[in-house]
Here is the input.
Amino acid sequence: MMSLSLPYVCVSCANRAVRRLPSAARQFSTSPSARTHGPESPSWVEIPMPPQRKAKWRPHVKGKLTKPREVFPDDGPNKATPEYLALVSPEPIREKKAPKNATTELESYISWKARMAASRRKNIREGIVELHKLKRQEDTKMAAISDAKQRKRAELLAADEPDDLILTLPTIERDIRVKTALQDPEREKRLKEVKQRWESMEVKSLQSRMEQIHEMYLNASSFILTEAQLERTVEDIFSVSVEGNRTPPPNIRTMLNDLEKRDNYYKYEKGTKLSALAGALTGGRFPKDREFVEE
Here is the structure.
């Protein structure tokens, strides 16, 4: 049995071939039977797009451009004056001349350097003057544009609302949107009360500040201002007396008496344990309802 080999046809060619076949029956819908985009395509649902302006293409500039410097700052000197120009491009103190036995090449070189220096002075002076002229023109242009915008805004704010807007606005919104200032008959009274309240707060603050200053003045006699006063104060607090006047250390009886005076609810008997005594001497505390007696 012979097998017939059919030629391979891609999907797009097959779709075009199907679309070219004449339709025998009239279609009920006006949409094409075969879509050009699949469900996974963003163009599956046709959404009307607004017309957009084509942005001008700008070539990518490698590197990082420096921030332009302000040539004529507002708080700087006026660079277009003759004094400033003479300062930035001073004239030579003395004219350079070739020596007597100099060659022609040396004389031409010295004269060429003098001409180049004069050209640089001329260029920097003319450049500063032209830049200042351009800045004044730009400032005048920007001021005119700003004034025109301000006048246009003022005209729009002062203009009456058109009839179509007045007729279509709701009544409540029309009553709320008033251009005149709202009347406030109690404004003067409220401002007076606010002023009195502010004045009373200022008086209290001033009194508190004066009391603090007076207290600081009274305590100023005990302030430490020098290193000698600091050393004297440290010695007075942490100094050790001589051997004859040294205070003897407290004994156990003295410590127990102090403890009984401080904590009256502790009761000690003759047979107090050594551990309880050590706890009392080291700052330990016992429960109120517990007595340590000899077993």
User: Anything to note?
Assistant: Residues 250-295 form one domain. DSSP finds nine helices and no strands in the chain. Confidence is low (pLDDT under 50) at residues 1-6, 287-295. The two ends are 120 Å apart (CA to CA).
